[in-house]
Specification:
197 residues; alpha/beta; Rossmann fold; 2 domains; five-stranded parallel β-sheet; 9 helices
């Protein structure tokens, strides 16, 4: 019988990866929706070939990889192109997620997905866990990494479900504004609760 699925989510620069990595250290299997999303558009994949046919060859870098910066520019300014891309990729990603969840073992498995609620992946989960920081801090932390500027961070935040709604939907919330030790203590408490059911 498949193990319980716990959905882990958090907006850009909230520290979701830190939380996910700590669960991994605790021996929990992580099904990473972002890694799967990258995998399905790997060089020479059928999904990438369809994207190239749709958007043109400039969407692929010289090394055969997807030009993410170019794609991001297109879909953030064009709703119908974003919809086309989602309709292509979401079913493929969802299928791979389901396969990985079904083969996982342990007291529970974590489904790590930045757009858990937006893409209705929370429907696959028994409980959901949100890594949370205020938006101002997201903008500050986010513009310090990935070479993404503040305006792009604001656009990414605006394209996602509002923080207030995510806070209402989540079964557990990790406040990631304090020290790393504090975050780890919150994770450990949740882990114990989930392991001892």
């Amino acid at each position: 019988m498949p193990v319980p699925v716990i959905g882990l989510t958090g907006g850009i620069a909230t520290g979701k990866s830190t939380v996910s990595n700590y669960f991994k250290k605790l021996g929990i299997i992580i099904v990473d929706a972002d890694a799967i999303a990258k995998q399905v558009v790997a060089p020479n994949s059928s999904s990438l070939e369809k994207i190239k046919a749709h958007f043109g060859s400039q969407i692929v870098l010289d090394n055969g990889e997807l030009n993410r910066a170019e794609l991001r520019k297109i879909i953030f300014s064009n709703e119908s192109e974003k919809l086309w891309l989602n309709n292509l990729l979401h079913p493929v990603i969802r299928q791979e997620i389901l396969e990985q969840l079904n083969t996982a073992n342990g007291p529970y498995v974590i489904l790590d997905a930045p757009l858990l609620f937006e893409n209705n992946l929370d429907k696959l989960c028994e409980k959901t866990l949100l890594v949370d920081i205020p938006e101002e801090l997201q903008i500050m932390r986010g513009s310090d990494r990935d070479g993404v500027n503040k305006e792009q961070i604001k656009q990414i935040i605006a394209a996602q479900m509002p923080r207030s709604i995510k806070l209402k939907k989540a079964d557990y919330v990790i406040d990631n504004t304090l020290s790393l030790e504090n975050t780890y203590a919150q994770i450990t408490a949740i882990h114990q609760k989930l392991s001892n059911r």
